[in-house]
Amino acid sequence: MNDIPLRKIDHVRFFVGNARQSAFFYRNAFGFDVVAYAGLETKVRHEAGYVLKQGDITFVLTSPLSDQHPECYRLIKHGDGVMDIALEVPDVRAAFDEAVRRGAQPVRPPEALEDEYGVYETASILAYGDTTHSFVNRDRYRGVFAPGFKPIDPDRYNPSTARPVGLVAIDHMVANVEEGKMNEWVDWYAKVLGFTQLISFDDKDISTEYSALMSKVMQNGTGRIKFPINEPAKAKRRSQIEEYLTYYGGPGVQHIAMMTGDIIKTVRAMRANDVSFLRVPKTYYEALTDRVGTIQEDIRELAELGILVDRDDEGYMLQIFTKPVSDRPTLFFEIIQRRGSKSFGKGNFKALFEAIEREQALRGTL
Ligand code: FE2
Q1: 36 C-alpha to center of ligand 1: Å?
Q2: Total count of domains within the chain
Q3: How many A from CA of 334 to the centre of ligand 1?
Q4: Is the whole-model pTM more than 0.85?
Q5: pLDDT by residue (tens digit) across 218-249?
Q6: Do 142 and 227 have their domain in common?
Q7: Could you tell me the residue range of the domain that residue 17 belongs to?
Q8: Do 145 and 180 fall into the same domain?
Q9: Ligand 1 midpoint to CA 228 (Å)
Q10: How far away, in angstroms, is 148 Cα from ligand 1 center?
Q11: N or C: more exposed end of the chain, with fewer CB within 10 A?
């Protein structure tokens, strides 16, 4: 299937209960700069929005301002979560028409939003659960984000006081879907967006005594956009994917992996900001050199910070996972540094899943 030309992930929109406080969290814990705001003060009556940036990553945090907001039910159903993954395209109408022709369900038809800074074009289609993909084009837009948004009041968040932790781009974004639905969504990304399958993991790769899952990684033609799709597999006890599906109330975004050029520096800064990460046992580091060979980083430092390493034939990669960022055990983040390897850390799955299961046991959801 031919590609719909996609440039990159333009932004990720979260629908949250209190965007003002979420902005404070992503700024002061994850090091984002708050750059724009929409809300009552900018004549937007139904919702508040904050735009946060770090490197090439843009997050938009949106909260409804009353029970008349058409998306209100999301908060009851999901708690906070990712509502939309927006993809930058050269031609919004062409991308939308082609996606719908190939079977995508339309959510918002193409619109050209205008203000004094130009024209911002957008449209959206439905993906897994109630998660959407917007197509956006800002080639003719020079404003801070999109019409309705104004630069943040520097009295509130001064850019000179932002403390970035070195996150540069989104590496991949992972979907959790129901048991038996992974292949349906793999086919959807192939058919509708022209993605191809990069890797697949089955329950033999990814299982512990209790937890099992299957996963396929889909990517666009340029390889810049990667969406792994997970489904739970049969196991003795409830898997982390089932736990997610229960608490999110259906399929949705499980984690967002963000790339750094220096994971030690990034994780050290985030730990100093009180971000909670998963920990693996000390024995993981005793066996590390045998498993991955020589690496540039100091293993004692990796052990101190809880950073994991995996190697494939092209090189190695370093990664670490946060604990869920809300009370519901749903969305979490991955920090990743690639040194040649394009892998997703298969060699770490067992140690990681055992770490997740220890957390599940504490929650009584294993
Ligand atoms: Fe990941």
Answers
A1: 28
A2: 2
A3: 6
A4: yes
A5: 999 999 999 999 999 877 677 889 999 999 99
A6: no
A7: 8-161
A8: no
A9: 8
A10: 33
A11: N
